[in-house]
Design goal:
There is one protein chain. By secondary structure, the chain is mostly helical. It folds into 2 domains: 39 residues, no CATH class; 77 residues, Alpha/alpha barrel (Glycosyltransferase), CATH 1.50.10.130. Strands 1-2-3 form a 3-stranded antiparallel β-sheet. A hairpin with a 5-residue loop joins strand 2 and strand 3. Helix 5 runs antiparallel to helix 6.
């Protein structure tokens, strides 16, 4: 039994929605061949275009932009006044205060709110160990006291 193949010529305009714009479809002839008995799809496109000699070349004007002053040497010359030892000590002091705050919070909802605030501020990476310990503590005590999250969708979502 001989295998036969069916070839269908389908205009591209039926795929792209150009059937409503006949002027656009008339500019170029496009078709797509689909062989039904094989998994391959072959698309053939032909266009009616002008030869290169007939096309006009558009010459654009130069805007004469000046080079940027923000080169690497200029950026390296900028100084940052917050890199001194005074600011480093202050940052360490503030980190210790936050660690104390994490340790002093007793209510589970307050702990979760503090952790949420640290994460939203982008400071959580400084306190990963403390956050992990606090979350483990909240998780371990979740069945002991459920009153703080009962009928409170916000608390439940923070715990989640």
């Amino acid at each position: 039994m001989a295998s036969s193949s069916y070839i269908a010529a389908i205009p591209v305009s039926s795929f792209t929605g150009l059937q409503h714009y006949p002027k656009l479809v008339q500019q170029g002839a496009s078709s797509c061949r689909i062989r039904v008995n094989k998994p391959a799809v072959q698309c053939v496109s032909t266009t009616n275009s002008k030869p290169e000699s007939d096309q006009t070349v558009v010459i654009r004007r130069s805007a004469n932009y000046k080079p940027s002053i923000w080169d690497d040497d200029y950026l390296q010359s900028l100084t940052n006044v917050y890199t001194g030892e005074v600011y480093t000590r202050r940052a360490k002091l503030l980190k210790e205060k936050v660690r104390e705050m994490i340790g002093n919070v007793s209510e589970p909802l307050d702990r979760l709110e503090l952790i949420d605030s640290l994460q939203r501020l982008g400071l959580a990476y400084h306190f990963e160990a403390e956050i992990k310990k606090t979350l483990q503590n909240v998780y371990n005590n979740r069945d002991v006291d459920r009153s703080w999250k009962k009928d409170n969708l916000y608390a439940t979502s923070l715990e989640f």
